[in-house]
Amino acid sequence: MKAVNNYIVVEKIKMPNKKVAGLLITDDLDTDNRYIKAKIITTGNLVEGLQKKDIVYYDKHAGHGITWDDKLYHVIRTPDVVLVE
């Protein structure tokens, strides 16, 4: 699998649950967090500054899911990335 143009294929990284004031906050309940942490699987030929295996944060409303070899990935565009670790 290889991304093309300015597309990036990422795999979401599951964030650990956290406790706030004795309450367990999961990814499903964390509505204040707008950004998702993910690992880059492949980048398109027009993507600059990002490489395979980089850890990025992107807007959770961006992109769409794709299944490849029975595994769920997400396809986003370069402008959707807001932070690189």
What's the tally of helices? 0
Outline, from the CA principal axes?
elongated
CATH topology grouping: 10 Kd Chaperonin, Protein Cpn10, Chain O
The value of Rg in angstroms is: 14 Å
The stretches of 5 or more residues where confidence is low (pLDDT under 50) are none
- The CATH class assignment is Mainly Beta
On the 0 to 100 scale, the average pLDDT is 88
| Percentage of residues in DSSP E strands | over 45%
Number of strands: 8
Q: Name the strands of the widest sheet in spatial order.
A: 6-7-1-4-5-8
Write the layout of secondary structure elements.
Elements: E1 7-12, E2 18-20, E3 23-25, E4 35-43, E5 55-59, E6 64-68, E7 71-77, E8 81-84
Antiparallel strand pairs: 1-4, 1-7, 2-3, 4-5, 5-8, 6-7
What does this structure look like?
Strand 6 (64-68) and strand 7 (71-77) form a beta hairpin. The protein has one domain (7-84): GroES chaperonin (10 Kd Chaperonin, Protein Cpn10, Chain O). It is built from no helices and eight strands. The chain starts with 6 loop residues before the first strand and ends with a strand. It has 85 residues and is mainly β. A six-stranded antiparallel β-sheet has the order 6-7-1-4-5-8, with no helix packed on it. Strands 2-3 form a two-stranded antiparallel ribbon. The protein is elongated.
